[in-house]
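Hello everyone,

My group is preparing for a crystallization screen and wants a predicted model to guide construct design. The compound we'll soak is pyridoxal-5'-phosphate. Before spending weeks at the bench, it would help to have a computed complex in hand. I've included the protein sequence and the ligand's SMILES below. Output in structure-token form would be ideal because that's what our pipeline reads.
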Amino acid sequence: MTVTAQDVDEASARLDGIVGASPLHRSPRLSDLTGLDIWLKREDLQDVRSYKARGAYNLVAQLSAAERAAGVTCASAGNHAQGVAFACATTGVHARIHLPRTTPRQKRERIATLGGSFVEVVVDGDTYDDAAALSRAYALETGATPVPAFDDLRTIAGQGTVAAEVLTQLPEPPDAVVVPVGGGGLLAGVLSYLRERSPDTTIVGAEPAGAASMAAALDHGGPVELPEIDGFIDGAAVRRVGTATYDAVRLHEPRMVVVPEGLVCVEMLDLYQTDGIIAEPAGALAPAALRQDLGLRPGSTVVCVLSGGNNDVSRYAEVVERALVHEGLKHYFLVDFPQEPGALRRFLDDVLGPDDDITLFEYVKRSNRETGPALVGIELQRRDDYAPLMQRMSHSRLHVELVEPTSPLFRFVQ
Ligand SMILES: Cc1ncc(COP(=O)(O)O)c(C=O)c1O
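Reply:
Good plan to model first. Here are the tokens for the complex, ready for your pipeline.
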């Protein structure tokens, strides 16, 4: 069973007057950067600051009277919970929402505000999977209906209303639509609608490089659990995609791309500092994908779904750090300093360029009386300053080792 364009139209009718249409804004910055005609679908401007109310409302609004009386439950790291809270407050259905302890405070507070007296929030478990297990147990015990974040045809049809709206907002169907992919609900909905209603539109699914679970599913011929993921792009860092979402993706064959987390951070900063848009990491995933070559004809009209804006301000320090590393402007080294007066001064004089800045200096351990390794972070003004820095290091008498971003040691600096 897959979702049809008709299912999405029915979802649009249900949502009418309840979940507002989000604006479609042209992005002069991304258009200039890419040579494409880029339009941002601003799901960050929804009441719940993401597209998630669409799928949640479409599901809750279809429950029978008995199901409504038994209530619903879900697990979420934040955005889906806001969608469910909104849907339940609007329909008067009780929800038990399970959040892992890692859920940012900003999201917890928004869930409570949106849900009011209809929503009971339980914060428990170290990971999303723990919270999901608790939600499943609650459903079995009480008969509450689970509201899946992506693996349900009603959720998928609701998310597909994003694409239905786009076709009413542009004079011609776009040449391409770029959407972020976590469990694949949004992608499956957009595909199901556009393949019927605008078959010539290219659809691109963008996954985080550190959690490319849809690419893995396509490789293996079915959903598989990724052993390790980078959880930074929290909305879209999913270990295993859904069965229904995978079926839609396999059937409609979108173009899939992976986007490095650092590039998402670069785009988040441009959105913030140039465009004045607060995007959360998953929200910036599709715009960041445009910075890679997607094989689109120059001048193509491209709609890019900016899917969410629930960012906690405390995350920007890590965003800046990851962006600098991605752009080759920040590097970390292990330097063996001889334990003698003047060693540090010599390092500064001989190795550091005039515009290079030390951002971190920490002795790791004083292993013996002769040398002590230190972790040194250096920020460059320009990427071109890197080669001369490395050359000066190789000429210095000190033993210096570059800490690669892929090295396990790197976790200590981020
Ligand atoms: C802002 C945002 N973008 C994208 C996604 C990925 O969504 P999906 O699971 O529908 O692929 C999520 C999921 O929570 C999200 O919150």
